[in-house]
Design goal:
Protein name: YpdA family putative bacillithiol disulfide reductase
Distance between the termini: 18 Å
Shape: globular
Radius of gyration: 22 Å
Largest sheet: 7 strands, mixed
Oligomer: single chain
Number of helices: 8
Number of domains: 2
InterPro entries: Bdr, FAD/NAD-bd_sf, Ferredoxin-NADP_redctase_2
Organism: Pedobacter punctiformis
Helix content: 10-25%
Number of strands: 17
Keywords: Flavoprotein, Oxidoreductase
Length: about 325
């Protein structure tokens, strides 16, 4: 085994809730570890909309046996960020933030050599727990690269009294539409299908349906955005192309894992784009390289969440110990 200060039993890529859960289990098993995170602690959650409320209860978001106490039945984004920060403090987790992993390769001694934006590491095992929030699904339409277009929505105040187009009708799109409308924006929703997304939160669905019914929010179903210009957009509808005034486009079209990174690490990705791994151990086709959390779902980003992928941490560490 290499003898240097940057060698660990386990190197974990991603300091989200599942990456932290893996670190806690490694700590309990007396394994040395380090988490390397390209952004802030729980970076994806940090980038969620400021006023977002989780679908899950706080108990289902707990890791490490630390109670997640809230005054509401369902916690919000701010409470979650604070909770996970306190978990990191409680376990004194070894986390290196704002450090991007660039390469993971195995050497002749069967040890992983990990190169980052700041230094190099070696590790006996690597866990990839990077989620899927970093790579948005693009619309691939003219004007998508204009400054007024965003694939990440955070705070509705920016859009007060503006003409706003929201693309998408799942939770993120519905939340953006309702919140910006309530800040005085003139909101137009563009929905590719014939109805709102099936996963829209049950307590939010009546609100958005009523706003559309009353004409307070305009919605074009079976439609798509086909071009974006500085002060207007073109929408393809069943009745033909419609042009409307526009100041901002919020494209809530979804996200995907960083497939190029997974391929670079040697992980097999079949045509379905669901990474190859053993569902009992979470080990990929690369021996000693594991996946944890929502990254395992590939393009099916509604398959795995914090609550049903927390178990990956125990599965992985148990396999490593055995």
């Amino acid at each position: 085994m290499p003898e240097n200060q940057n060698h660990y039993d386990i190197l974990i890529i991603g300091a989200g809730p599942i990456g932290m859960a893996c670190a806690i289990e490694a700590q309990r098993a007396s394994l040395s570890y380090v988490i390397v995170e390209k952004g802030a602690l729980v970076n994806s959650l940090y980038n969620y909309p400021v006023f977002m409320t989780f679908f899950s209860t706080s108990q289902k978001l707990e890791i490490g046996g630390v109670p997640f106490v809230t005054i509401s039945p369902k916690p919000n984004r701010n409470e979650a960020v604070e909770y996970y920060r306190r978990v990191a403090e409680k376990f004194n987790l070894n986390i290196n933030l704002f450090e991007r992993v660039n390469q993971v390769v195995k050497n002749d001694a069967d040890i992983f050599e990990v190169t980052t934006s700041k230094t190099n590491y070696t590790a006996n095992h690597v866990i990839v727990s990077t989620g899927f929030y970093d790579v948005p699904l693009l619309m691939n339409v003219p004007g998508e690269n204009l400054p007024k277009v965003t694939h990440y929505y955070k705070d509705p105040h920016l859009y007060a009294f503006q003409n706003v187009v929201v693309v998408g009708a799942n939770n993120s799109g519905v939340d953006a539409a309702l919140e910006t409308y309530r800040k005085g924006a003139k909101v137009t929703m563009i929905v590719r299908s014939a109805e709102l997304g099936p996963h829209v939160k049950y307590w939010v669905r009546p609100d958005i349906e009523n706003r559309i019914k009353e004409g307070e929010i305009s919605a074009h179903f079976n439609s798509e955005l086909v071009e974006i210009r500085a002060d207007e957009v073109d929408i393809k509808t069943a009745e033909g192309i419609k042009t409307i005034k526009n100041d901002f486009v919020i494209a809530m079209t979804g996200y995907q894992p960083d497939f190029s990174m997974l391929r670079k690490f040697g992980i097999d990705l079949p045509q379905s784009l669901c990474p190859v791994y053993n569902e009992e151990t979470m080990e990929t086709n690369v021996k000693g390289l594991y996946l944890a959390g929502v990254v395992c779902g590939g393009m099916d980003t509604h398959k795995l969440f914090i609550e049903n992928s927390r178990v990956h941490a125990e599965m992985i560490i148990n396999h490593i110990v055995q």
